[in-house]
Specification:
The complex is a heterodimer of chains A (262) and B (131). Chain A has 262 residues and is α+β, with helices and mostly antiparallel strands. Chain A is 30% helix and 15% strand. Chain A has a domain at 64-214: Alpha-Beta Plaits (2-Layer Sandwich), CATH 3.30.70. Chain A contains nine helices and eleven strands. In chain A, strands 9-2-11-10 form a four-stranded mixed β-sheet. In chain A, strands 3-4 form a two-stranded antiparallel sheet. A two-stranded antiparallel sheet of chain A has the order 5-6. The longest helix of chain A is centred in the first third of the chain and has 29 residues, at 5-33. Chain A is elongated and about 110 Å long. Chain B is mainly alpha-helical. Chain B has one domain (34-129). Chain B has helices at 4-18, 20-25, 39-44, 51-72, 96-99, 103-113, 120-123, and strands at 76-78, 84-86. Chain B has a two-stranded antiparallel sheet with strand order 1-2. Chain B is elongated and about 80 Å long. In chain B, 11% of the residues are buried. The chains are: A alpha+beta (262), B mainly alpha (131). Chain A binds chain B through residues 36-45, 48, 81, 143, 145, 147, 151, 153-155, 186-194, 205, 209-210, and chain B through 49, 66, 68, 70-82, 84, 87, 90-92, 119, 122-125, 127, 130-131. Strand 1 (41-43) of chain A pairs antiparallel with strand 1 of chain B, so a sheet runs across the interface.
Chain lengths: 262, 131
């Protein structure tokens, strides 16, 4: 058989049409094959607590001595598997006690009244509206959620500690050691951390997701209120309206979401 | 070719050394391990998706799940058949480990065989190992 250029082009053309028709047939055939299957999806729990900007009001008038704060700190640290390291340099803290002079450096006053001078303040991550730690994080392990909570994705943290340098409140701790041996009673429902990640308070995001208030609020006997700062009818907004409140280092422009009634 | 015998002996020694891993492991071949299902998992018959899908894609689905939970706060998964599941690796009955209770028999068996070392358990707590 003699192959002319004409014949070759004819066969090539028919082959091209043949190859092209298969994907077309596939697209028409596919809807029937997976007709009963729907696309997998994700949703929040039914009883989730939602807000636009979660905030906290701490009534310091209800605390008299450091002993009043201990059960609150202990409640938080025990459910979140926060280790108790013996060496101070390795200390991990989510919520802790601080004196006025150190917590409110903006409003320094050498002749402050005795009550404030010796009053124990409960300090924690302020879940700032404009969080500097989020801007500092190079891996987006720290991020601000839609409801205002400044969260950490421990999976993503590479332990660079930029966020610790950026946070003006010292709210973040670094795991210099493996935390597991230093946890007395592990709570199996919350993960521990591993060596080399930063951690901090998460406003009990895991409890809000199932309709519970943060643990410190529960343990405070009404001294701590939690709610949506964006909702004028919320308990926190009512407390803020009726009482004089202060925030930590407001001049830095981070807009903390934790308020103190003094 | 006066050194023929030396060369041949050298070649034989070389060949034996190079194939020594095969000689060492001869007769010790292990079959691919089958993950052992717990009674609960056996009774349920299906996981959150089909068995075939989970076999090939469980690591992918776990990765999506952790991002949904941590970053978006979504804790309910609706699978391709429209059934809803609670998203959790190890806490409570409605979690991966709630059904696949024995981590050593279910996860580790294949992971060890395939020399895969996922770091899930550096942080997440296997309820059975809890102290």
């Amino acid at each position: 058989m003699k192959n002319s250029r004409r014949n070759f082009l004819k066969i090539a053309g028919i082959s091209a049409v043949g190859l092209g028709i298969k994907p077309v047939l596939n697209t028409f055939a596919s809807p029937d094959e997976h007709a009963e299957q729907s696309k997998p999806g994700f949703a929040k729990n039914e009883n989730v607590l939602t807000g636009k900007r979660w905030g906290m009001v701490i009534d310091t008038r209800k605390f008299k001595s450091p002993e009043d704060l201990e059960p609150i700190v202990e409640a938080c640290h025990s459910i979140h598997n926060v280790p108790h390291h013996k060496v101070k340099n390795h200390e991990i803290k989510w919520i802790w006690e601080e004196e006025y002079e150190h917590a409110f450096t903006d409003s320094e006053n050498e002749y402050i009244n005795d009550r404030l001078k010796h009053l124990p303040f409960l300090v924690l991550c302020n879940h700032c509206d404009d969080p500097p730690c989020v801007r500092a994080c190079p891996t987006k392990a720290t991020f601000k959620r839609e409801d205002g909570i400044v969260m950490m994705d421990f999976h993503r943290c590479i332990g660079c500690r930029f966020c610790m340098a950026a946070c003006p409140y010292g709210s973040r701790s670094f795991n210099f050691r493996d935390p597991r041996p230093a946890i007395e009673h592990q709570n199996p429902d919350f993960p521990t951390r591993m060596k080399g990640v930063v951690e901090k308070c998460n406003f009990c995001a895991e409890r809000l997701a199932v309709g519970k208030m943060p643990k410190c609020v529960e343990a405070s006997n009404g001294a701590i209120a939690f709610g949506d700062l964006d909702d004028p009818e919320s308990t926190v907004r009512k407390l803020l309206k009726e009482n004089y409140t202060i925030r930590r280092k407001p001049s830095l422009g981070t807009h903390p979401s934790v308020f103190y009634i003094v | 070719m006066n050194d023929k015998s030396k060369i041949v002996i050298g070649l034989i020694i070389f060949f034996v050394i190079i194939t020594s891993p095969f000689w060492y492991n001869m007769g010790k071949a292990v079959s691919v391990p089958e993950p052992k299902l717990s009674d609960k998992a056996k009774a349920a018959k299906v996981c959150v998706e089909s068995k075939e899908y989970m076999k090939t894609n469980h690591m992918h689905i776990l990765d999506i799940w952790r991002n949904e939970v941590v970053r978006k706060g979504n804790r309910t998964y609706t699978n391709s058949m429209g059934k809803e599941y609670n998203i959790s690796l190890s806490s409570g009955e409605e979690s991966c480990l709630g059904c696949h209770g024995d981590k050593a028999e279910f996860c580790d068996k294949c992971h060890t065989y395939a020399s895969v070392e996922p770091y899930c358990w550096d942080c997440h707590i296997n309820p059975k190992e809890k102290k």
